[in-house]
Design a protein that fits this description.
Order of helices and strands: HHEEHHHHHHHHH
Strand content: 5-15%
Structural class: mainly alpha
Shape: elongated
Number of strands: 2
Distance between the termini: 52 Å
Helix content: 55-70%
């Protein structure tokens, strides 16, 4: 049986990649999967998110608890079956993106802002789960395991936000280094230097610059 941290480690990379592709916060993906399956203990049919099957879709019947009319009841439902956890994560994001109720609730606006608290509340407002404490439980998991750090990482690597350098001197050091490369002709656009001094560079942009500089240092015309 996995520990909570082992479960998080098992799906975090997929959640980060999925966030960059779909905009669904990695922290929300991980927290929902943890809450819905007891950190992987009850992921029958590799279904991490309790997404129900429709019509003739392949499904697995299971008894689950739902909060109806002020009390908890047991219901028997058919749930989707997946070949892997990765497939379940992908389908979860597709489910959220293709159901306009989540967009209307503001889920994707809050996700763009890396606001996991209001993103969790938007899920509850949209009726993702019947549990009246659903959003609070997600927020608690995210904060207990610092899952918001995966959001920042995905956003930095995906070019959504500037790099999170801790000290001002680090940005200045980066700007000075890029300025030196500009003086040598390895960077031909001084705006990159200014973006570093203004603390605006993203991880993706820096990686791209690095590729350009390596190519130019080898006399490749790019």
């Amino acid at each position: 049986m996995m520990t909570p941290q082992q479960f998080i480690d098992a799906i975090s990379e997929e959640a980060v990649t999925d966030m960059q592709r779909t905009g669904v916060l990695a922290s929300i993906t991980i927290a929902q999967a943890a809450l819905e399956t007891g950190y992987g203990q009850y992921a029958r049919g590799n279904n991490l998110f309790g997404i129900k099957a429709k019509g003739s879709e392949p499904q697995q019947r299971s008894t689950t608890s739902e909060y109806v009319n002020g009390r908890w009841i047991q219901v028997n439902e058919g749930f989707r079956i997946y070949d892997s956890w990765s497939e379940s994560i992908s389908d979860h994001s597709s489910f959220l993106r293709t159901n306009p109720i989540y967009t209307r609730a503001g889920f994707f606006v809050y996700s763009e802002l890396l606001d996991y608290k209001n993103a969790a509340r938007a899920l509850q407002t949209a009726g993702y789960a019947t549990d009246p404490q659903y959003a609070n439980k997600l927020i608690s998991i995210i904060e207990r395991y610092r899952l918001y750090e995966f959001d920042r990482r995905a956003a930095e690597e995906g070019g959504w936000i500037p790099m999170q350098l801790k000290f001002d001197w680090q940005w200045k050091q980066l700007g000075d280094a890029l300025d030196g490369l500009y003086q040598k002709g390895l960077i031909t656009d001084r705006r990159w230097v200014e973006r570093a001094y203004n603390r605006e560079l993203t991880v993706t942009e820096l990686a791209w610059l690095n590729t350009i500089m390596i190519a130019r240092s080898e006399d490749v015309n790019v």
